[in-house]
Design brief:
The chain has ten helices and no strands. With 213 residues, it is mainly α.
Length: 213
């Protein structure tokens, strides 16, 4: 079995261990493993792109990015991305991390479901989204080698029905606040003017991704 590139490994640091412990105690196994894969895929993308990035901050963003789906960290009116960003910021502050670094992680989490923007931002912001898009949607799937994908999934397994499981997890985490799902206003404008316009569908992209299961 191939090993994950050491340059994309989880940092061996006090902060990373604290993050792992917190998120493992907070999230389901499904989301914990997903978040761990997001980190590795994001870090591998960073290496492939030749970016310089802080692995601890990327790890914080990856591990906290779905914390807002959990009842213990879900507000009544904020988007789940913002709930997760707040949780990460507060945790990093408690660990003595600078406001600037905590804000970088906050931004990465808050924007991780906003395609087309993070790629132009700070490496931690862009790589978190890259990791999410790879693990959930299979975007850039072919840019990772079979060995890289196998090593990450071996370390943090996908459930046999991951696509449906992650859709269900999203639904369970946001169903109590549907107003927060209002999103891309541009699609609404085109749909209003073009009756035959077909919106992109997030769930369809997940189900049609190159990933199995």
């Amino acid at each position: 079995m191939s090993k994950i590139d050491s340059a994309a490994a989880i940092p061996d640091s006090k902060l990373a261990r604290a993050i792992t412990e917190f998120v493992r105690d907070t999230e389901t196994e499904l989301l914990f493993n997903h978040s761990s894969r997001v980190y590795h895929f994001g870090a591998l993308a960073g290496l492939r792109r030749g970016l310089t990035f802080d692995r601890e901050l990327l790890y914080a963003g990856a591990m906290f990015h779905d914390v807002g789906l959990m009842p213990s960290h879900s507000s009544a009116h904020e988007r789940f991305e913002v709930d997760g960003a707040h949780a990460a910021r507060d945790f990093l502050r408690s660990q003595g991390i600078s406001e600037a670094d905590a804000y970088t992680v906050w931004t990465a989490i808050a924007l991780h479901t906003t395609p087309g923007v993070p790629v132009h931002m700070h490496p931690v912001v862009s790589l978190l989204t890259a990791g999410v898009e790879m693990d959930v949607l299979g975007l850039a799937y072919a840019e990772y080698s079979d060995a890289e994908r196998d090593a990450v999934v071996h370390a943090f397994p996908r459930t046999p029905a991951f696509k449906e499981d992650i859709i269900q997890a999203f639904y369970d985490g946001i169903k109590h606040k549907p107003d927060t799902t209002f999103g891309n206003v541009k699609a609404d404008v085109i749909a209003d003017k073009e009756p035959h316009f077909h919106r992109g569908n997030f769930c369809h992209v997940i189900r049609s991704s190159p990933w199995h299961g």
